[in-house]
Amino acid sequence: MTKRLDDYEVALASGLYLRRQCYKELLEWKNTRARDHVACFLKGARRVGKSVLALELAHKEYRSFLKISFDEAPDSIKDLFVNGLDNLDEFYDRLMIHYDTSLYPGESLVILDEVQLFKPARQAIKTLLLDGRYDILETGSLASVVKSDDKEKTYLLPSEEDTIEVNPLSFSEFLDNDGQTNMIDVLKKCAENNKQLLAAYHPIYRKFREYLIVGGMPMAVRSYLLTRDFQKVEKEKKSIIDLYRNDLLQQKLVNPVYATSLFELIPSELSHHDSRFRYSHAGPNARERDYIGPMKWLVDAGLAKLSYPVNDPSPLPLLSLNPNEFKAYLLDTGLLYSLSYSNAVHDELFYKRLLLDTLHVNEGMFVENYVATALVGKGNTVCYYVKRNKETYKTIMEVDFICMKNSKMTPIEVKSSDDYSHISLTKFKKTFQSLVNQGVVLYDGDVKKEGEIYYYPVFMFDWLF
Description:
Blueprint: H1 7-13, H2 23-31, E1 39-43, H3 50-61, E2 64-69, H4 75-83, H5 88-99, E3 108-113, H6 119-131, E4 135-140, E5 161-165, H7 171-177, H8 181-193, H9 201-214, H10 218-227, H11 230-250, H12 256-271, H13 288-300, E6 304-310, E7 327-330, H14 333-340, H15 348-356, H16 363-377, E8 383-388, E9 395-405, E10 408-414, H17 423-431, E11 439-443, E12 448-450, E13 453-457
């Protein structure tokens, strides 16, 4: 009987394999932390490529491996994690027989896939790590959420684990998998030396427009790289959105209707001039207290990324975050396009106009969403700065993003129109001179400098921070 190919083997065989930068983090865990009997948890939204990453590591770095997918594991296997831990010899023997795989102490990997679907398996990890004969790798999208009605049981989650966040592909990863090594080299050199791109600007800008529309979800990227057909890419993105909608309706921890309405509301909230998220827009009788839980669910699921205002641009922004006010972004800009244009006719002309930016919509929301998700991909806490008049509440100064660089805060303004003014950046720099780096404007133009303000093409972000 021929053994069925796993997802990684299928990707290789069909030309759909994607190189991911976070594989280096996985390899570092394997060579250092795993030796100290520390598990690794690959965390991220569904369909961002966690399982394929885990399988890639297993194939390349281990003599053998065993993968248990808890979305399809039979009850007999699940029962082992509840009643079979008192005899680990028998525990592993039964796993090897069921999965027709041999495991070798110190040379094999056990993958617990979609582990959030069966909490006892996460609790069992502590016992498996103490035994120490195999490395343990988990993948999950909602590690903190129990997908059941059983709210009385309390499960002790493992503390002996490292977490690696898996996000959609970045622009640099998109270029890498598209074979655009020359573009990558030029972007790196120009970012390091503050040099203009000149003739290279427009070809890279065109690629960036493609990336914004396709996004970084592996299924969408694979489809585009193989077909160059935006309509086929759209089908892949819609299938992902439908999967998320189904997850929202199936989960039982929070009100599924409220969670779904918040997910669908993100594009329209971003399109407003003041893109602060308002729960009241979810419905005529929407109350904040009813929607806080569903929004937390979206964040835990990896579907939404929140940016909070800070009152003090210090190197420790978390100390001054305002949790009662925030902006909400979608995990992937390609999915944001699909949600925003769900009622449009997705023909060849539509995508041509999207690429040329001639639809006359709020293009800023997509660029801002890109920067927010790019910051998350770099491991940053996403936050912004706003100062308002205490009496009128009118905004006096606002900076789109604040991030850490060289132990200081870097203020970032995102521009996607002909207004390239930097009034707020100038005020911000004067107010907090000793605490911040130079101001940065990300816009649709070439590299330049005006006073202490640096202008960079928005697509250069990955090579700046």
